[in-house]
Amino acid sequence: MQVLHVASEVFPFSRSGGLGDVLGALPAVQARLGADVTVVSPWYASLSGTPQEVWRGEVPGAGLVWAGEVREEGVRFLFVGLPAFERPGLYHPDDVERFCAFGRAVLPVLEALEITPDVLHGHDWQAGLVVAYAHLAGWRAAFTIHNLQYQGRWNLAEAREWTGLPDWTFGPEGVEFYGDLNLMKAGLVFAEQITTVSPTYAREITTPQYGEGLEGLLVRLTLEGRLSGILNGLDQERWDPRTDPDIRPYADAAGKAANAAVLRAEFGLDDAPILGVVSRLADQKGMDLLIMALPELVERWNVVVLGGGDPLLAAALIGWAFHPRVAFASGLNEPLAHRVYAGADAFAMPSRFEPCGLSQMIAMRYGTLPVVRETGGLVDTVPPNVGFRFADAAPGALAAACRQARAVFGDQVEWQARMARGMELNFSWEGPARQYLALYRSL
Questions:
Q1: Once rounded to an integer, what is the mean pLDDT over residues 12-32?
Q2: Which residue of 35, 38, 280, 373 has the fewest CB atoms within a 10 Å radius of its CB?
Q3: Was 87 annotated as part of a binding site?
């Protein structure tokens, strides 16, 4: 089976979050299971190296386009270079226009290279226009919602000409959404099967609370049997405390204690247990709830936060970092993230919504017990006999769950039993990869 993934980022070439992680792991497992897999993604100017150029030409609406190829782990990575992407960084305020240019370029590049997949699999709104073009070309297409909050919207009167789509697609049954172009909706409307990255999130987005205005369409897709949830996996080779080069490798509680000592020394923390956080600083992630709960949390915990994003949340954490039990490191720092997962005792994820989440899986694999809100993939991955769950998106609810965790920490027999259960959980990508292949076969 020839499978073609389309996404805005793919680890290790480009990554801003979980989407890049998924595209860095899922295709390789599908290739090991026998599929012929290609991943198409933009070539950003900030990426290092130069892929082997395999095509160059003019594409209407995209300009002078080139395509380059890299092969790793049995997967062909096909990068598309466009004038709109010749600037530093991955994402910018004019991304709807940029990804319209990308969307118009993908099929001409594939046709020039004589690549005709059995199934095209688009990921998130940046691939929505590609899914629409695939449908118009008669190709089979699947589409995955990684985060419904980000939809790729722009005033339709201005954006209409960016898409190159025929006039009939611009109505309410097509890509129009309250007077805007909506590229997420393009993926939903024109794909034959739609998935989200956890079963609970698939149910949640059919409600007004989580549907981001698209719940009516998503209810219809569910009733038609076109919407389902497939839980993300975890790259268990990259995230393995027994072999991780960024930490002191370990397989049990004694080895973990050595990493706690390293983290404690790095940030000058006292002997209280450590509550870790590795997250985007965003309301979605409940970081404001964490900040509001800090006055109570620091009575029982050291709190170590690594993340970047909202400057107001970052400023609040910088202010708190003067407290002897609070440490804040700004931005993306992969080695430090590994040290936090390995050195923390517990891990906080007070998300308002969480399509899947990888941090809680990593934490449990590293013997770090998650404290999570009951939403999305956190419900599907954190067993009550391992982590600590709370229902309300409120600082008091987070603080209460952390009190419970601190009480259990006082019983090290129970705590280590929870650690052992968490470290034994299997979040391998093989199961989800087989589910996706079965979905493709149904198309």
A1: 92
A2: 280
A3: no
